[in-house]
Design a protein that fits this description.
9 helices; Rossmann fold; six-stranded parallel beta sheet; alpha/beta; 241 residues
Length: 241
C-alpha cells in the first residue's frame, strides 16, 4: 500500500493510541544506502593498517556490529584482537569512510523522509533515536552525507557494546532517561532491515517493523516473525501499528 503524505500523517496518529513512545532506527539498509562505501572502507582499513589486501571477502555485514566484524577479521588473518589493534583499525576505517562517503552513489531509503516527518507532526510525537551496529563516528559520517545525522539526538552504537542485543538495551535506557521514566518494551518500535535487527528488538521486548530495503526480502524477514514486514516505509498501512 503506497500512502499519500496526508494519509500517512493521519494513520500515524495510531502510534499514539498504540502507546509507542520510542522509535529506534537502524542505519544501513533502513535509513540510507551507502553504495557499498562502508564495506569498502573496512577493506581499505585492513589493508592500510595491517597490510592485508582483499581481506573482507568472507565477511557477512548485514546487521552485524562493527566491533564483531573487526574481531572476525582479526581472527581470519591471525591479528591480535588487542585494544591497540582495534584503535588502529578504526582510525584507518574512519579515514577511508569519510573519503568514500564523499564519492558514494547511495541515498536515503524509500519512504523514510515521509515517515519521519509524519511522526514529527503527531500530537504526541515519539522520541526518535538510532539502534545501530555502526560505531558512533561511522554512523555520523554516513548520515551526515545525506543531512540526516542531526535528526537523531541519541542512540545505541557499535562502540557501546559488541553485542547488538546489549546495544538495544543501552538505546532503551538512554531513551528512558530522556523521557524521564522507565520505558516498557511494548512502548518501543524498532525499525530495521535484517533478522539481527528483529532479534535485538525481541531481546528488549520491543515491537518490530522490518523493511526490505537492505539485502533481505520481505519473505525472508517474515521467517523471523517481526510484527510487520514491508518492502519499504512508503508501503505500510500505519493504522495497523
Amino acid at each position: 500500500m503506497n500512502l499519500e503524505p496526508e494519509t500517512l500523517s493521519w494513520e500515524l496518529e495510531t502510534l499514539n493510541a498504540s502507546g509507542i513512545r520510542l522509535v529506534l532506527f537502524d542505519v544501513d539498509g533502513t535509513l540510507i544506502r551507502t553504495g557499498g562505501a562502508g564495506v569498502q572502507a573496512f577493506a581499505r582499513a585492513l589493508e592500510a593498517a595491517f597490510g592485508v589486501p582483499n581481506g573482507t571477502a568472507r565477511l557477512k555485514f548485514g546487521g552485524r556490529t562493527d566491533v564483531s566484524l573487526v574481531r572476525e577479521l582479526f581472527s581470519h588473518h591471525q591479528i591480535e584482537a588487542s585494544a591497540k589493534n582495534f584503535q588502529r583499525f578504526f582510525e584507518a576505517y574512519i579515514f577511508w569512510l569519510q573519503k568514500l562517503m564523499r564519492e558514494c552513489a547511495g541515498g536515503v531509503c524509500a519512504g523514510v523522509p515521509e515517515f519521519y516527518r509524519a511522526m514529527e507532526g503527531l500530537a504526541q510525537p515519539p522520541l526518535i533515536g538510532l539502534l545501530t551496529g555502526n560505531i558512533r563516528m561511522g554512523a555520523q559520517i554516513k548520515l551526515q552525507r545525506y543531512q540526516w545525522w542531526e535528526k537523531f539526538p541519541f542512540g545505541g552504537f557499535g562502540d557501546d557494546h559488541e553485542d547488538r542485543a546489549q546495544i538495544a538495551a543501552i538505546a532503551l535506557q538512554r531513551g528512558s532517561q530522556r523521557l524521564g521514566r522507565a520505558l516498557r518494551g511494548g512502548e518501543v518500535l524498532v525499525i530495521g532491515d535484517t533478522p539481527l535487527d528483529i532479534g535485538c528488538a525481541r531481546a528488549i521486548g520491543a515491537k518490530v517493523l522490518a523493511v526490505a530495503t537492505g539485502s533481505f526480502s520481505v519473505e525472508k524477514l517474515r521467517e523471523h516473525q517481526p510484527d510487520w514486514a514491508v518492502e519499504d516505509l512508503s508501503k505500510i498501512a500505519l493504522d495497523q501499528l
